[in-house]
Amino acid sequence: MKLKDLVHLLKNAAEQGASNALAESGQLQDQLTKAEAYRLYGRGNVDRWISEGLISPATPKGDHSRKCLDRNKLEAVAASSNRITYLPAAER
């Protein structure tokens, strides 16, 4: 294993551990609003993932006015980078 690979694995482990600790303590919400997702991952990425069906907005219990996205699904899609679905500039 190369040093670069080890650094990448340790970085991912640290991020996952921090996320798990924040979620268990109640500091990290299970759902994100679309606005929060836009700020974290970019409007174009989030809209593209929704249009491709990789994530889907859902209405949280008791709040019918806003749509939320599942944080775990959103993080999984963002981590996979999904770069293969980008269109070349000529095809946009």
What does it look like?
The chain is mainly alpha-helical. It has one domain. The protein is about 55% helix and about 5% strand. The chain has 4 helices and 2 strands, in the order αβααβα. The chain has helices spanning about 5-25, 35-40, 45-50, 70-80; strands at about 30-35, 70. A two-stranded antiparallel ribbon has the order 1-2. The longest helix has 23 residues, at about 5-25. The radius of gyration is 16 Å and the shape is flat.
End-to-end distance, in Å? 40 Å
How large a portion of the residues is in β-strands, by DSSP E? Answer: 5-15%
- Computed over alpha carbons, the radius of gyration is 16 Å
Helical region count?
4
Secondary structure elements and pairings:
Blueprint: H1 3-25, E1 31-33, H2 34-41, H3 43-51, E2 68-70, H4 71-80
Helix pairs in contact: 2-3
Please supply descriptive tags for the structure shown above.
7% strand, 54% helix, 2 strands, 92 residues, mainly alpha, single chain, two-stranded antiparallel ribbon, flat
Task: Write a concise synopsis of the structure shown.
The chain has 4 helices and 2 strands.
